[in-house]
Amino acid sequence: MNVRSAGAAALASVALLGSGTAQAAAGGANEGLKLERVVMMMRHGVRPPTKPVATPKGTTAQPWSAWNTPYGELTPHGAEGARLMGAYYRTFLSARGLLPGAGCAASGDVVAKASSKQRAIKTAEMFVEGLQPGCGVKVERPDSEETDTIFHPSEGIDGEVALQAALRQKPGLAAEYRRRAADFAVLQRVLGCDPATKAGCDLAGKPSHLQANKNDTPELEGALSVASTGGQTVLLEYLEGKPMNEVGWGRASKADIQAMLRFHVTKFHYEVGAPYVAERYAAPVAEAILDAMSGQQAAKLTMLVGHDTNIAALRGFFRAHFTAADYPQDDPPPGGAMGFERVKAKDGKRYVRAFYTAQTMGQLRALQPLTASNPPSFSYFEIPGCRTAAEATLCPLETFQKIVGGKLKALARR
């Protein structure tokens, strides 16, 4: 179910049935289901590139556009985008009976955790400020990346084994060049392919390779990596609301951006897509999700705010696929989140449903207020091996526990 209208359905249900109605929910599949818990694994919001020169010298005909925010940090525009999402989810979750529509939730009902990076911390702070304005919800975060055991795990991954696992990923790097030929053509045009100087013209002819990292995920290097960074940088210019003559030097349309973003998906397919890598890198996040779905004293809403790598690995952990708003399949957009709901049926049985939510590119670029008539994208997706006969996205809680718990126990024994 693609529920761009899910929020509208939920809010309309409440308007008709009364704000205390537990059956108010996103679409007909929710009828009779009471929402009990939600966990959201969110990517930070809009930021500049993480370094002064986004791509190597010679890959663009002109310098990249300038930013007023320090490299890698959340911009004011990105912060407001996160606040707008929080404000929307205050209304959306209160409509579904999870959180109060006015005032502050009870202590412990909302928990927010972020990675050590400023862009993640600030995103979490702005989201919970929109969700619980003036309530002083504190964001938990580690002191540094070295002490971050949830979003930057450094244990359990053998770099060489991870590299070999990545190299076995299909279709293989050589085939990616053939598969992405049209996307390379778009990228090179946007980068300013200049036959006279060759600037930005030969990316499709340059090799790519995977590099092992000790106790970490492998890293994609070469043309495919540059293509991923280039596409992401143009996307960030667009989402930041820069004038279109500064978005890809005035050479990029929204359709061009969508084509270039497929390189981002490719990068993560090889870096964290292999089961050996995905399961180990995503294990701390998966454990937090399992605890929130299963624990007796868990928060009603648990916010985990990190990075696209966390979401890509979590997708690989479940071997699932999602589509967020107007982005390519399996591409985690800035400010979007992979989420999990625990719901209770009238017969007392509990289920888990996975969803993805994100602002559309246009909503985030224009910082549009998010309302029942203009909601962010929201769609449920299937967890492989976890479904009921009647509804592919409705997973019995005990099955979800077996899938996640089984993988975590297997990792602990290795």
TrEMBL record:
Residues 1-24 form the signal peptide. Keywords: Hydrolase, Signal. GO terms for cellular component: outer membrane-bounded periplasmic space. It comes from the Bacteria. One of its GO terms (molecular function) is sugar-phosphatase activity. Belongs to the histidine acid phosphatase family. PANTHER family: 2-PHOSPHOXYLOSE PHOSPHATASE 1, ACID PHOSPHATASE-RELATED. This is Histidine-type phosphatase. It comes from Caulobacter segnis. The lineage of its organism: Bacteria, Pseudomonadati, Pseudomonadota, Alphaproteobacteria, Caulobacterales.
